[in-house]
Amino acid sequence: MGGVGESFSQMLERQASASDFSAWLLAFSQPQRLSEVEWLELVVPVASSIGDFAWMIQEDQNTTRCHIREFIRQAFTAFWVPGALQAATAPKAFEGFVAWMESLSDAAVVRFCWDLLTFDHSRTPEPVRWLKHSGRLAGAISYEHIHLAVSVADEYDAMYWWKKQRWSFVKWERDSQPYLELLSHVSYLVRAAAARTLGQMFFRVKTELVHGVPELSKMLGVVQDYESKTPGIAGPFLQGAEWGIALKEWSSFGRGVDMKAWFIETLRRSAQEPKSLTCNRWSFTRMNSSLTTLTRFGNF
Q1: Phi and psi of 17, rounded to 5°?
Q2: What pLDDT digit, counting tens, does each position of 213-265 carry?
Q3: Which residues, 6 or more positions from 132, have their beta carbon under 8 angstroms from its beta carbon?
Q4: I need a surface site. Which of 95, 218, 225, 299 has the fewest CB within 10 A?
Q5: Cα–Cα distance, 270 to 213 (Å, whole number)
């Protein structure tokens, strides 16, 4: 099925090496028109093997399981077969995999669910449902909060491709308000998604010369205030606003703003970001880890 010779079950039986499993999982090519039975025969042995590999050293076990997680993500997205799990016994085959996912960090769980949810917005893949019902998706990373964050992030994606004619209908005071309100949301995922989308809106209304937009210094003050209360906002905002990328545009509307001083003060006032933000590269501290970076882009 996988196009690489022996089956996954055969590799388990002979206790293959981590490199062999990795090659099998990474070389797997998307099947064409699998039947429900074929999908189960392909995916179940991989999912149910998550607790095996005792013959490997711990590092190799971890690597193999990460490749399995990626394979399962593809199984429920790229080569998903509707109806494959209708058999009453089918979900039980994934219980070990779900239990393993529950043991991972919030960042790993969020990244896995995020990728599943963004592949096809018309459905919620079963692994996400299982993690929701198990209670793993709770608090800041609840199913509802991840779904809302995905929806807000989708608005950023759409906004990125808006043409000039569309921006001519934007009114900053009206259209920025929902994102400003979401900067106080209880979930840091939603706050980060809102900050990134707000950053894109700010950048585009500045460059498209929309009227009624606050000066950069005022906007940075708002972001800094939110960042000091709930870390994980400044980085996504700057990413959405294309700071450090659109140098020409920033040198135009950012003239006279001491970005280096703003960064230092914001970092001083900000607490540690939730680690889950780094799974989407929406990080303030990672984007600006040294004064060299700040100096390079921060003075206009």
Answers
A1: -75, 165
A2: 999 999 999 999 999 998 889 999 999 999 888 889 998 898 889 988 998 89
A3: 142, 143
A4: 218
A5: 26
